[in-house]
Amino acid sequence: MKTLIIKIVLLCLVSIPTYTQNKVKTFTFKKGEVLDVLLLSTTKKNTKALFDRYKETAFPVAFKYSYQPQPGFAIKKLVLGNYLPTSFILGKWESKAKREGFLQNIVENVPDFHQQRRDLFTKFELTYYEMPRDISFSVASEKYTVATAFWGNSKKNEELYKKWEAKSKERGGEIVIKLENGVSPAGYYYNADVLYIVQWKNAKEFESFAKKYPLPVFDKLQNVHQFVIQ
């Protein structure tokens, strides 16, 4: 599993040293920088050959547009939702203009870029967020860390999210980061109303909370995708 995750991080323009086994992974973003969130799974066929070409063509363009590798996470368990990606990857760009500049110009530089991604990945979903302020957050490996993405049926769902967040805190959850107002490129859609990363002392503490406040009972939700990362 560790080898597979390293390959996936590499395929997402992240070098091996960034996928660390440190007990705490810390992320720092300045106002105006862009945070990428990617959910990935790779093909099992011809991975090396496909990756070698992707590395030679896509890497230089991404770095030209300011891409900065960040530590990644394995997805360990599906809690709610219909599928389980293999990896949860974060990335950084200097600005929204540079992030979108890459998207607008990559095909001109690499005409078969999207086909390469389809060949490499069985799942590739992307949302990027422009940071409204300076922010720093950390994820500790000894904690039980759960990512939760919410899609609602109306604009009134904000109160539901706030209630869930408050109850999480009451039951021992630590809100690591809350992401809103994201953008997903066409073909890579994963733009939830809000995405939370919450740390718990252990699995038992989280499961106790989830049992007391089960998300499936909220009929105002259109979809929930919840999974454990490490």
Throw out a few tags for this protein.
Alpha-Beta Plaits; alpha+beta; 32% helix; 10 strands; 6 helices
* Biggest β-sheet description: 8 strands, antiparallel
The total of helices stands at 6
CATH fold category name of the largest domain: Alpha-Beta Plaits
Count the domains: 2
Shape: globular
Instruction: Give unreliable regions as ranges.
Output: 1-20
CATH C-level label of the largest domain = Alpha Beta
Number of strands: 10
- Rg for CA atoms: 18 Å
CATH architecture of the largest domain: 2-Layer Sandwich
Helix content: 25-40%
Task: Summarize the structure in words.
There is one protein chain. The protein has 2 domains: 2-71 and 84-130, Alpha-Beta Plaits (2-Layer Sandwich), CATH 3.30.70.100; 140-229, Alpha-Beta Plaits (2-Layer Sandwich). The protein is built from 6 helices and 10 strands, in the order αββαββααβββαββαβ. It has helices spanning 2-11, 47-64, 96-109, 113-120, 157-170, 203-212, and strands at 24-29, 34-42, 68-80, 87-93, 121-130, 135-140, 144-152, 174-180, 194-200, 221-229. A hairpin with a 6-residue loop joins strand 3 (68-80) and strand 4 (87-93). Helix 2 (47-64) packs across helix 4. It is globular, with a radius of gyration of 18 Å.
